[in-house]
Amino acid sequence: MSWQRQHLLDIESLTAEEILTVLDTARAFKAVGERAIKKVPALRGKTVVNLFIEPSTRTRTSFELSEQRLSADIINFTAEASSLKKGETLKDTAKNLEALNIDFIVIRHSAAGAAHFLARVLNAHVINAGDGAHEHPTQALLDAFTIRERKGKIEGLNVTILGDILFSRVARSNIWALTKLGAKVTLCGPATLVPRTFEEMGCRVTHHLDDALRDADIIHLLRIQHERQRKSMFPSINEYTQLFGLNKARLAQTKPDSLVMHPGPINRGVEIDSDIADSDRSLILEQVTNGIAVRMAVLFLVNGGKGPQEIAAS
Amino acid sequence: MPESAIVLNAAAIQRALTRIAHEITERNEGGADVVLVGIQRGGVPLAEKLAALLAGIWGGAVSSGSLDVSMHRDDLDQRAAPNIHPTVIPFDVTGKTVVLVDDVLFSGRTIRAAMDTLNDFGRPKNIQLAVLIDRGHRELPVKADFVGKNVPTSLAEKVRVRVGEAGVEDEVVLERP
Known about the structure:
- By secondary structure, chain A is of the alpha/beta class.
- Chain A has helices at residues 16-33, 58-69, 90-99, 114-121, 137-151, 169-180, 209-213, 237-244, 248-252, 274-277, 284-303, 308-313, and strands spanning 47-52, 73-78, 104-109, 125-131, 158-162, 184-188, 204-206, 218-221, 259-261.
- A five-stranded parallel beta sheet of chain A has the order 7-6-5-8-9. A four-stranded parallel beta sheet of chain A has the order 2-1-3-4, sandwiched between helices.
- The longest helix of chain A is centred in the last third of the chain and has 20 residues, at 284-303.
- Chain A is globular and about 55 Å long.
- Chain B is an alpha/beta fold.
- Classes of the chains: A alpha/beta, B alpha/beta.
- Chain A binds chain B through residues 1, 3-4, 21, 24-25, 28-29, 31-32, 35-37, 39-42, 46, 300-308, and chain B through 68, 70-72, 76-87, 116, 119-122.
């Protein structure tokens, strides 16, 4: 068995074998989601706190549903409702949660490293649901799962990630996961959002869309994150769409079996043409479905391994 | 070097399975609505062999599936997360007589988990249990309906069942530490 970790904090520190373990486990959980009874008792009696300090709907509901399907008990915290608004530090909030004997914390935070910090100060299992512009590991795992399911493999595929790479934790986690699994990753977007420094992560960087799309098997689009950006990153949304938006003419020039992905929420008419989003080349809704299976697998895997000896020692 | 003794060789395994098949026939006359479900991993090749034997007796195909019970185990937080193997039940179990098949019956916890897992797929008319080896040491009130061989063991011993693996003879071995 190739999974011994108590937390899922990032993709960077995982081995290819560990990533594949999650994907294989997720396949079994996907089958559970297709049964008449979509629930298994694997986390019965465990308490999970969803600590979402940064707003999120789709990731939080996906985690919630995954936890429910594993029979866990759930508490949800959002930024507005938490005492962080009253000036409590993250550490104090987390320590208070731990005093309630919770077993898992799923954390979304605007500061990079928030999940790593909690894993250091708490005994609970910590799962990173996105920390600033750093990583979003479960998103990368569900993307890899979706690619492998549709293409049968990941090794040797050309994956183009297009858009706001600089501010994207999804891009970083995806780059780590895909390069570890042997895909060739190309990054493309405006030069201000796709700096050459990303070449150090083992990717190709180009600022010409046609060059990025020509050999692509997977075109992974990212949303322009208005909330993380200064206005000066590119002149206008309209110009971005003109230069980097995926439209039918551009998709027609790619491989006939290339597939389009997007972590959502999509901005129709900005980074993706409305028709493409709804076409059979789009994996966007499959990504959502697979998110449940992958998150169930992650919760299931990090739960294991804490033997009675370890509990006694801690 | 652990000491080991062969409990059943390939021919003896085949004889045991043939006898179990006839006992299943005796209990379920006609074989209508009998399906086999092997518990991952050791029970799966045994279920397939039994299905083939029963098909010969009843003169018609007998369905067989596989069941992974990992998600229903009661020791999930006490050991590293188990590898999950596929669950394939290509038939409706509701109203059927399901014969669960496993290689070794030990604490009975796997069987408890298997019955719970099976309930997520439907409501069988009844569930029967067939095992190749019963090694004792039950921790739950579970009893097999069909047993290949009773093997008294100590807790320190290991029973290794090898059936249907490519390139090696089928055998059951008892290993002493």
